[in-house]
Amino acid sequence: MSIGFLLLISLIITTILAALSNWVINNWPNFILVIFYALKFIISFGVVMILFALMFKMIPDAKIQWKHLWPGSGLTALLFLLGKTAIGFYLSKTNPGSAYGAAGSIILFLLWVSYSSMIFFYGAEFTRAYADHVSGKVPATDVAINTAT
């Protein structure tokens, strides 16, 4: 559910920024366009990074400090945006229905879900390893301790 929510928020932000980029292309010089694309990436990266940081903070039954979340959520957001760009590039250059027929879009959706979940778990494990390396063992919350006994 959280990956789906992340995908939805990212898609909405990308759509809004893409609509604004068409307006900027028609009304502003080219150097403004370069600045706009840089801002588009920075805003998308920032939002996705914050969403991953919130997921890494809220989902596990561990007391992870905020300062340990940022490197892991930054890496995860970067990989997430690279994957989104790669799948978008693939869809723009090929016809997914040619090899798989009508199931091509379903296969691409499953590919995206698989990639997103792998990136999420890789980012979570990187965040845990980073927190363990920097500050020692990450303690469990009271909820995790009470349910384990």
List the helices and strands and how they pair.
Blueprint: H1 2-27, H2 30-58, H3 66-93, H4 96-100, H5 104-135, H6 142-148
Helix pairs in contact: 1-2, 2-3, 3-5
Written account of the structure:
85% of the residues lie in helices and 0% in strands. By secondary structure, it is an all-alpha fold. The protein has one domain. The chain is globular. The protein starts with a helix and ends with a helix.
Number of helices: 6
Taking the sheet with the most strands, its summary is: none
For the residues shown, what is the average pLDDT?
79
How many structural domains does the protein architecture include?
1
Q: What structural class do you assign from the helix and strand content?
A: mainly alpha
Radius of gyration: 19 Å
In short:
With 149 residues, the protein is mainly α. The chain has one domain.
Keywords:
single chain, globular, mainly alpha, 6 helices, 149 residues
